Amino acid sequence: MKRNAISRPLSSLRQESVFDSYYNSYFNNSLKVPNPSNSSKPESTPPRPWKPIFIEYVPEEKPIVNTNYNQLLRCCTDLKSLLQIHAQLLVSGYKSDNLTDTHLVQNYSLFGKPDFARFVFNKMENPTTISYNSMIRGYTRMKQYRNAMLLYHKMLFMGVEPDRYTFVITLRACIEAYNVDIGFLIHEEMVKNGFDSDVFVVSALIEFYFKMGKIDAAEKVFENMPEPDVAVCNAMLKGYSLSVKPFEALRVFFKMQREGIEVNSESLLNLVPAVSKLASVRFCRAFHGVVTTRDFSRAVLNGLIDMYSKCGDVLSARAVFYRLCGRNDVSWGMVMEGFVSNGWFGEALGLFDCIKRERLKLNPVSAVSALLAAAEVGNVEKAREIHDYFLRAETVSDLRSLEKAREIQDYFVRLGIDSDVDRSSTSTSYRAGIDTDTYWSSPETSY
């Protein structure tokens, strides 16, 4: 027969709780035989048998804290991880809070899932301004501009006060959707909320009016600024440079220098299309003088090469190129395009030989310029050599989007070269295939 737990020796017990120690001690003392010499009275009642007491352990209920999940959401780098974190949140029974839900909305929008973001957004009891901004930005990023503008109207209807980021993001949606009416309403709401002197918001509003072709409205906004800084002036420079009033960009630039507003690289890059349109060597040299006063980025020097080339001063463009430290593929492309557009075909082919000899990156502008130079001089072998090189460099996929692709394809057909360049390109690009005016004014120009 098995021995019960009471009859086992105490040494066989591995671990004893506080309650077990207490009752074992009581049980052992009760089994001791009384000494007659020490006790004068007989024991009246027998010892009570020991009965184990079972105490149920109830864990303490603690509220689930989402701090760790928020840290994970901030560090999330892919959609799969985000879905796993969201699933863990759902099965853990967390209570919804604005901070965690806003992180979910931001990440779903970032990873291109606006429907998932809107599902989380609709579950929020009281969405904050940041939540609305995240949702509007997600719609704008996914080119769902109508949904972005509808959500902005819902935000105002629900009494949520917009901030500076709300206006900037919604104006971007209006620009992409080419919706002038909503932009006018946003302008009125900006004035109503006191953002008409905010540099960040005013710069976005000026860009909106220039994109919509409302140059007079943009000028009025600029004139109403009490103290325009470099960001607002850059918006005016960019707008004028890409409009039919390039000379006005120079007026703004000279005004900045008179009033002591320090220009930056963005200011000069925004000015490049205006000087190129005016085709004035005098303005190019004035621009060059400003560049030499400070250590500007390489993109500004590449723009200087492009300006000199379009103004016909190829010698100055070549001098800037050879003095440029750390030349990249954009630098080579700009100077080669300048050589071809001004009839310096031999120099353009010489630069291609340098690119091939040094195994440098061949971008589409360099490839097209070299091919056009070979076509102009009638060098069939050189054309074949250039064609084979950019096939190995996998530049054909980039060439398909260029305006000159059809002309190059026809040239290859006449030479009997079977090329992969698409003949159906319908791009409206500029010269050798890139609209350099838009290129220099784009925020992605960071070479």
TrEMBL record:
Example of a GO biological process term: RNA modification
Keyword tags: Repeat
InterPro entries: PPR_At4g14850-like_plant, PPR_rpt, TPR-like_helical_dom_sf
Keyword Oxidoreductase: no
PPR repeat windows: 128-162, 229-263, 328-362
Pfam families on file: PPR, PPR_2, PPR_3
Highest rank taxon of the organism: Eukaryota
NCBIfam families, sorted: PPR
Protein name per its UniProtKB record: Pentatricopeptide repeat-containing protein
Provenance organism: Papaver atlanticum
Lineage, top ranks: Eukaryota, Viridiplantae, Streptophyta, Embryophyta, Tracheophyta
